Amino acid sequence: MKQFWKAMLKSPSGVIGLIILLLAISVAVFGPMLFPNSPWRMVQRPFLPPFTLSTVPLGTDALGRDVFAGMIFGARVSLLVGLVSTLVALVVGVPIGAMAGYFGGKVDDALMRFTEFFQTIPSFALAIVLVAILQPSIYSIVASIAVVSWPPVARLVRGEVLSLRTREYVQAAVVTGQSNSWIILREILPNALSPVIVLASLMVATAILLESSLAFLGLGDPNLISWGYMVGAGRTVIRQAWWITVFPGVAILISVLGLNLIGEGLNDALNPRLSREGR
Amino acid sequence: MLSFVAQRIVKGVIVLLAIVVLNFFLIRLAPGDPAIVMAGEAGASDQVFVKQLREKFGLDKPLPEQLFIYVKGVATLDLGFSFRQQAPVAKLIGERLPATLLLTLTAFAISLALGILFGTFAARFAGTFLDTGITVFALIFYAMPIFWVALMGILLFSVTMDWLPSFGYETVGANLTGLAHAVDVAKHLIMPAMTLGLFFMATYTRMTRASMLEVKRLDFVKTARAKGLSDAVIQRRHVLRNALLPVVTLAGVHSGTLIGGAVITETVFAWPGIGRLMYDALLQRDYNLLLGVFVICSAMVLIFNLITDLVYRLVDPRIEYAT
């Protein structure tokens, strides 16, 4: 663990990514406490340009709502949806991949056909259809993002398990009569974890992009403000008020960039052999 | 080779069938009466239309029979009727398909060409300032949401500089013909295609760079060098050709994302393709149309995947067509 942090802190992209993520998390957690302005409330005249009033530093939108407050509250939605949908995708993908890789044969065939099927369906289109049919809410959004993002996890885990299954220590566990689930959970999965962690960090980034795109199209949770919704709402007035679309977009860009950098840093730290090859 | 193509087509048809079945269950996943869901918010109050739907899809019959009726309909390209647009779904999609193909294929070509170019440069000058610059740019474009890139493009090139039109497929009311019309469409195409292409360009740049650096260290490259081939020849003929294999695979995997990006891009630029149609269907809760577009998008992805598979086989020197 100590070694891992050391390696992580050696990678410049990992450090920058961690700083960005910590910042984003603290904004999401503490921001709303420091900024009690509700993002839905009218606080000033509409279309107030940014940097004119210190109380509304980033200006107001078409309804006089505080853009800065929206960005702070939006951080919660983005990070929450990103993390939870990734967790759900892992909960679905890891067991499927592990079973396919461990049992092989017909189980593997069936599970992999199933996975490939989900991978062929255009993911964003499926997410749109799912959220539209289930009605937009934070639950349906998380569920549909998870539905479209688990297949790569299953495929990755399957590959890892497939190569670990033939290792001697796993064979030894089989010989000593351990149950299948014990072998998968205690012997194989812990050793297959590092590439999964790297993938998961990138998945959070993709999930944030997906959520913002859904919200942009009007498929966000109607009770929660999110960055994608703000950009979507500002779109029609972009000629008069650039700031309504520019700032939330920058917030998405920075968070996604941070998570991608963390993914790279994790990759450097967890698979040192691979990262050296990259140079 | 031929049997391989046949095999893949059969596989594709099976997947498509599965998607149609999924579609069937999706309609029933929505809360409420499927006939009313299919009619959409606009048609639900029209009793005659709802009754027609109920009869057509046999909604009072057992589920397996309903499924059969539905699949048969889709197989004969009957994707239902859009109450809101007062037209068959298949016809609506057919009219919009060419615009989407023009957009996605242009974006694909741009992203692949630029991505390979930049990736090759970055790998060639690995560790230098140029490499860092390209890598940082790729990282940033990779993290930008497509809808935001589109809006920033409009802000920069339409609102501020007034260089390019910000919406539509052609200048309305200009009635241009021949070359002038083509130029007009191209002008309208630049921004949507670049927007859609940039994200994928970033992906291909990263992939090409990583893949080239990996291939460079392999033994056959050393052999080529030992033979006294020039660096340029080695880079082009030996390294690039092998390094492109994962890029081709990635292009296939990404075709679904490309379609998803087209929905966003077409929405922002009012590009009259099926992505925009999907957005309209979404706004009006026109589920029949929405699911119809979804099936066609999936079919497009399947076809695209088939093509990339074939290209892979053509590019990869290690695969033979004996099977």
Termini Cα gap of chain B:
7 Å
Report the principal-axis shape of chain A.
elongated
Give the count of helical stretches of chain A.
12
The overall average pLDDT of chain A, rounded, is: 88
The structural class of chain B is mainly alpha
**Residue share in helix of chain A:** over 70%
Low-confidence stretches of chain B: none
Share of β-strand residues of chain A: under 5%
Radius of gyration of chain A using CA atoms only: 22 Å
Report the count of strand segments of chain A.
0
Treating each run of at least 4 consecutive H or I residues as one helix, how many helices of chain B?
13
Largest interface, by Cβ-Cβ below 8 angstroms: which chains and how many residues each? A-B, 45 and 56 residues
- Terminal CA distance of chain A: 25 Å
Q: What is the mean predicted local confidence, pLDDT of chain B?
A: 86
pLDDT < 50 stretches of chain A: 275-279
Q: Structural class given helices, strands, pairing of chain A?
A: mainly alpha
Describe this protein with a few key phrases.
heterodimer, A: 279 residues, mainly alpha, elongated, disordered C terminus, B: 323 residues, two-stranded antiparallel sheet, 13 helices, 1% strand
Report on this structure.
The complex is a heterodimer of chains A (279) and B (323). Chain A is mostly helical and 279 residues long. Chain A has helices at 2-10, 12-34, 67-103, 105-120, 123-134, 138-149, 151-164, 168-175, 180-216, 227-234, 243-270, 272-277. In chain A, helix 3 packs antiparallel against helix 4. The radius of gyration of chain A is 22 Å and the shape is elongated. By secondary structure, chain B is an all-alpha fold. Chain B is built from 13 helices and two strands, in the order ααααββααααααααα. Chain B has helices spanning 2-29, 34-43, 47-56, 63-75, 89-124, 129-143, 146-160, 178-216, 219-226, 231-253, 255-269, 274-283, 287-315, and strands at 81-82, 87-88. In chain B, a hairpin with a 4-residue loop joins strand 1 (81-82) and strand 2. Chain B is globular and about 80 Å long. The interface between A and B is large, with 45 and 56 residues.
